[in-house]
Amino acid sequence: MLYRVSAQYGRGGETFIAEFSMREDASHFIGMKRERDHQMKVQVIYKLYEGMDVLDTFNDEDGGTGRVAAPASGSATAAGTGERFSPSPFNTAPRPVGMPQNWKPAEKDEKERK
Asked: What share of the chain is helix, strand, coil (3-state, %, to 5)?
């Protein structure tokens, strides 16, 4: 079998970092990486895949010894959290200093120019 290890830092994307032919080698590799990350105080989620299936998920939230089972689906975990997407009614786009709120000329300005 082919075992693949992925890492996910913070809110970033998941990146495959290693491939192994034996599960013990992959588990040992994850253990070494987790020890190093714990010393550097970096929070990383490691996932162990067998082909395309997630076997284990290793999370460092509880001091470097945490191991949590992989969720069945992404929608099931988000359903109970109460988090919903609601865009802000305010215009939050960053602008350079001095740039006007509305860069299009108003209708009356267009009529005055003609």
From this structure: 25, 25, 50
